[in-house]
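dude i think i finally got it to work??
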Amino acid sequence: HKIAILDIRLLNADRNPANLLCRRLPDNTMELIPIDHGYCLRSMCDVSWMDWCWLDWPQMKQPLSEKSKQYIRKLNIESDARILRERLNITEQAVDFFRTSSSILKAGVEADLSLYDIAVMCCRNDNLAEKPSTLEHLTSMASELSQVVVVSEDWHHATACRALEEQLTPKSVVVSRDRSSGRTFRRCASSGEFLSVTDADVADDDDDDDFFFDTKMETLEVTVPSGLSKALGESDMQPPPLAHSSGSGSDSSSD
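look at this
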């Protein structure tokens, strides 16, 4: 399980049997030692089922231990990504793939999936390994949406970026306008926290570039992409639209 967790996070494309050593311990048990990690953290995420020799091992379908679950839950993805960039000079694209695979791993653990269920979302599973994996679909969608946000003048940059972030976050998010109590927006964040914004808050934050709600926006519903619906036990999900911001309230600056 430890080796599988490592390979999923690093998207190791060369975990063949020759890259696992066996060592006999004093109590006569055997220990696996992973070696040769030259095909980790690449600028592509085309890992296939044949790259992970452990994928068909029966242990992969056994539940994770509580210790392994706690380890994964406590992973600080952004802290690790910063180390990869600053200390190891890993390319930004490779770091993005690292973020994505690590996020799927954490979401899978929260959904009580086995490592096998998590791994098959991160690798190509057809016989010839030609069909893109769920991970590849997610990263491709994120790239396309990002380009749309950049080139379109119809989207408030902050609103669009936050909507994109929430679209790729494995939680449901609802942003709505409560007409009964005036202009109040409530947002159920991916962290499970709630944020209420009133008219007074809007007035106070007119000059705050980080305030991304448009006063004309009625409702934005964001759900997890269909590729992660299995991990969350949900079905019939459709990729949601980005939050549209039109009219004079939009800030078209490049800040």
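The radius of gyration is 21 Å.
im so relieved honestly
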